[in-house]
Amino acid sequence: MSGNIFKFKDATQLTLWVRYMLYAQIVVALIAIGSNYLEYQLLMDYQSGAYFSEEQAIADGDANDMRQLWVGLIYSLVFIVSGVMILKWIYRANFNARQLGATDMNFTPGWSIGYFFIPIFCIWKPFQAMKEIWLASHDPERWSLSDSSSTVNLWWLLWIVSNILGQAEYKFAERAEELQEFVYANMVSQVSEVSGILLALITLNLVNHIYRAQTKALARVEQQTYQDAQQFVAG
């Protein structure tokens, strides 16, 4: 028997929850884009001198800050929960690839997520771990002879870009003092949200492909096990 299917852990519910959280990320990011656009309009009104009342300008500014605060809190909550779910999914995907017969994998289930938290190594190690999972899931017996996937490459590129933009957004917002600096911070935030949506979409594609590949591989292993058992009984 190839692998140990009796230790294989069904990922159907976990995959479903990861999908839900990725959809939630996209929805919240769209809301954030809308909120940022309203803030941009407010900043433009400040810049053009559209306000004739200082009290109204202050009131609109406070309302904007409160709205942005709530959107930011919701976004952070969704990001944290989805991050935990995705890491749990990666762990299980690595584990299941081994049960399906993949041998000599360089990354254990633990290290496939552990490298996300180690400075410097987090730049390329998680990518290599995910590439292993992808290959081992699609061809457990000969995964080391297979080619990498453009989906994994694009996923990691967007991950790097999204993180860079996230850091830039934080630094622009933290250092902003003049009105024009707040405008720049807003624009960087808009671009960051768009990259986050693209990352969520490619992650969704990645998760779906690996889940389907492992499901098909499990069916093949079960079929082979059944045939071997039938031959043993007949013999």
TrEMBL record:
Chain ranges passing through the membrane: 20-38, 69-91, 111-127
All copies of domain DUF4328, residue ranges: 62-211
Family matches, as InterPro entries: DUF4328
A Pfam cross-reference name: DUF4328
UniProt keyword list: Membrane, Transmembrane, Transmembrane helix
Protein name listed in UniProt: DUF4328 domain-containing protein
